[in-house]
Design a protein that fits this description.
By secondary structure, the protein is of the alpha/beta class. It is built from 14 helices and 14 strands. The strands form four sheets. It has a five-stranded parallel sheet with strand order 2-1-3-4-5. A four-stranded parallel sheet has the order 7-6-8-9. The protein has two domains: 177 residues, Rossmann fold, CATH 3.40.50; 176 residues, Rossmann fold, CATH 3.40.50.
Length: 403
């Protein structure tokens, strides 16, 4: 028996038996998508082409990061790095947390791979080696929608949003798209919330203001049930029938539209991922997720799946913990995934997803979507890609949809 133990220890020391690579996952709270973590992680293992229930090569260690505030993210990061000693730091974050956690990660020479919705414009300053991201790039769909709306409807449009949404860069990107298409002005309304009832909307005041403005189009940016509340009020008015209603991408997801599928609304929007795309990479992803979970694929599963495809390509070096090769590979890889070519670094011409302009109809227990145009996106060298300008700063630091 002693000989067997000694031989086993020798084998371990030689690195022939490898322990799983550990990946700490920062998990903020989301009342809108409470199961985003399991969906993202399931997508990751499916992209890795491994059983999500076995986790043999890479073990994900979740760590609750509260509302995603800077202090909570920093505290969770310290625990994962110092107590769990994870090999890779990952999770959902807002970019405003980066200045506080990048030094913690760099000090230990760790690898990081973060996810985000793209509610903030990406950093334009190099973060150093070992920092990688997979973003839904919602700012690109907002820019494309603004550009298309101004070209299509001309005139002066109106942008309406609660104060929560005004704290991100989605409205900035939409306004930039309007400007790039020749629009010289845009009416903007920010709805303040009551401190004792932050989810309350003064719908009557919103509608009165929009009716007085008589805009060429209205763009609404809401999250969660507030979006449906606004659209129900919009449908109830008679004067709105001749005004095109544009909504943010997250308001077009089928799980959000399910409660209003009988309203008889026609909506316009821009989407960075089409779940019904017949592209072979997308068909494979959607099928694998459905077969594994019994549920329809969603944006979080998509983000995880794309990351899993990348990790699969470099898995032999990950298992060896050959981080120099991993970093070089992650930096140079252009991956073909469900939403086209993807890169995972912000520097060196960040790739934009293909944006579809869609018309969505909600009626007769059905939600139908028709692609009506191809969206125009921001280029990497656009001056708008600088989130640290004074005009873009706000107090919101938590990841989008994580409230």
């Amino acid at each position: 028996m002693l000989k067997i133990i000694i031989e086993l220890l020798r084998t371990l020391n030689k690195g022939l038996i490898m322990t799983p690579v550990t990946m700490g996952f920062l998990s903020p709270y989301s009342s809108i998508y409470p199961y985003f973590g399991p969906h993202l992680q399931t997508g990751f293992y499916l992209g890795l082409d491994q059983d999500p229930n076995r986790k043999t090569d890479i073990e994900i260690i979740p760590e609750f990061s509260g509302t995603g505030s800077i202090r909570e993210v920093e505290s969770a990061t310290k625990k994962l790095l110092q107590f769990n000693n994870v090999d890779i730091l990952s999770g959902m974050i807002g970019y405003k947390s980066l200045p506080d956690i990048v030094p913690l990660i760099a000090k230990r020479n760790k690898t990081s791979f973060f996810f985000d919705m793209g509610e903030l414009l990406p950093p334009n300053e190099p973060l150093g080696d070992g920092f990688f991201f997979n973003s839904l790039q919602l700012y690109q769909s907002e820019y494309a929608l603004g550009y298309w709306a101004q070209k299509e409807f001309s005139g002066i449009g109106s942008l309406v949003m609660p104060i929560y949404n005004a704290g991100y860069n989605l409205n900035v990107a939409f306004q930039a798209g309007v400007g790039a298409a020749g629009g010289d002005s845009l009416l903007v309304s920010t709805i303040h919330h009551k401190h004792d009832d932050p989810h309350h909307l003064d719908i009557e005041a919103i509608m009165k203001k929009l009716r007085q403005e008589a805009p060429a189009y209205v763009h609404a940016i809401f999250v969660g049930p507030q979006g449906n509340e606004f659209m129900e009020a919009w449908k109830a008015e008679t004067w709105t029938k001749d005004i095109p209603l544009l909504v943010a991408e997250n308001m077009l997801y089928e799980d959000m539209l399910g409660d209003i599928q009988n309203l008889g609304l026609d909506l316009y929007g821009a989407t960075s991922w089409n779940a019904n795309s017949e592209d072979k990479h997308n068909v494979k992803f959607v099928k694998k997720f459905k077969e594994n979970t019994g549920q329809s694929a969603n944006i979080y599963a998509l983000l995880g799946y794309e990351a899993g495809l990348l990790f699969k390509e470099w898995l032999p070096y990950l298992k060896k913990r050959d981080w120099d090769t991993v970093w070089k590979g992650f930096s140079q890889t252009v991956l073909e995934g469900p939403r086209g070519p993807r890169k995972f670094v912000f520097e060196n011409d960040l790739l934009s997803p293909e944006i579809d302009i869609v018309k969505v109809s909600c009626r007769n227990e059905r939600i139908s979507s028709l692609v009506i145009d191809r969206g125009t996106t921001l280029s990497q060298n656009d001056n708008l890609l600088n989130p640290f300008d004074d005009g873009f700063n706000s107090g919101w630091v938590n990841p989008y949809l994580c409230i």
